[in-house]
Amino acid sequence: MRVSEKVTIDEVKSWDSGGIVTIKAGTGQGKSYFIKNNLYAIAKKNKKKILMLIHRVNCVNQFQDELVQAKKTDSLDIKTYQYIEALYKNNKEFDFSPYQYIVCDEFHYFMSDASFNNTTDMSLNAILKQQGKVRIFMSATGDYMQRYISKYKKLETKGYDLPIKFNFIKDLRFFNKDETIEEFIKEAIDKKRKAIFFIQSAEKAFKLYKKYQDYILFNCSKNNEKFYKHVDQDKIGNMLKNERFEELILITTTCMDAGVNIIDKELQHVVCDVKDIGTLIQCFGRKRIVDKKDGIYLHIKTITNQQLGGMETQLNKKIEMAQYLRKHSVHEYIEKYPREYDKWSIVYNEKVNDDKNITTLKINDLIYFKCLTDMNDIQYMKQYGEYGYCKFLARKFGFYDGFEEYTYTVVEEKNQQELLESYLESIVGKRLYSAEQKELIEKIQLRDGRGRIQKGINLLNAYFVENKMEYLIVSKRTSKAKDKKRITYWEVLSNVAR
Fold first, then answer.
1. Is 346 in a helix, a strand, or coil?
2. pLDDT in tens, 17-62
């Protein structure tokens, strides 16, 4: 189902001026099409104007070109959230008066970017204050923001949810090491596979580009001045215009996480080294699915349970000062934290009286709420035990059968398992005495929770069962006495039915 089928003309007519509308729909389900066609037609007919807000410059350029070509700039204007934030940061205001509809495209921006942009609340609050306008919030990953608006801000919303399916993901793989990213690049080059790599760190993305630049198109945000000078703007412009890139590989930061379409059936491999789950989903959603046979092989950098614990500790530290201010007065806060400032900018100074230059302390609710939701997700992931992050995403993307059976793979473990199976095949049927047993144990590398290597046959055989390996170790004794003693040895059997 597409947005235009769910949000009909009659639905639009039923909206209250001053109402808040949320639209949840996956990438490629026609959110932007609905605004630029259906809502535009209604607005123009009624001599009203639409303001469409976008959070990435790439998207602005692409959408603006489309509007100019379609001659629709008369009733639809496009701005970035950052443009509005810059005004309010400098004690100015944006003039919303010409507009009857304010469209917040990819409105997950307010929260996802709050982790590094402490002014997203300025544009959001300015929009929420426009009570005489219809405010439309759209995203595939706006669940937390929708909850923030309706539950935290206690504002009534009218929601339209379209089912989001991830059945275009043909295979889900996770990887642990940065070195594995290079292995993916080498494999793509050797096998001539088109691929997109989304790398959170601009520096890491650039280093990969420099190493394999004959095959790679590089992209990053203009804000990364050190690396943006290496971006071929003409090629990026052509990619946005043609909705495909001609190079074998595109390496980009999350500056391309929304609004940009890549329509190319040859592109089937997407690699993501991105931590925020909402941003991650937006990234691989840049590949538009052409037909039922089209799809992607998705590779995601893991976050280990140990790393999740570290992130949780960091989040607790991040909100510590804000939590204290929520429960105490400004005076008590200053006594608790004399001459200190919140380096996370969750607690900030704000003027309450310009004439007398009086300030007070306030809390950035968006960043605070973002931290709480991230902590909640981490606690949820940890409940799944080992590889909690992977299992969380596997369930979300449909790689879980409901009976504790996950169908994703961890690349390094799979490679290690293939090497182990090759080794096991080489020793099937052979007598393994003490030295050979030690070698086998070292090859399997089974360890307990305290890192101690496991040596018992039962534990090693249980490992084979858990990893669906059709091998069995049996203990036997020699039939002839040697030095008047029978000698115990191991033997590996193959093709063992479970």
1. coil
2. 899 999 999 877 889 899 999 999 999 999 999 999 998 776 777 7
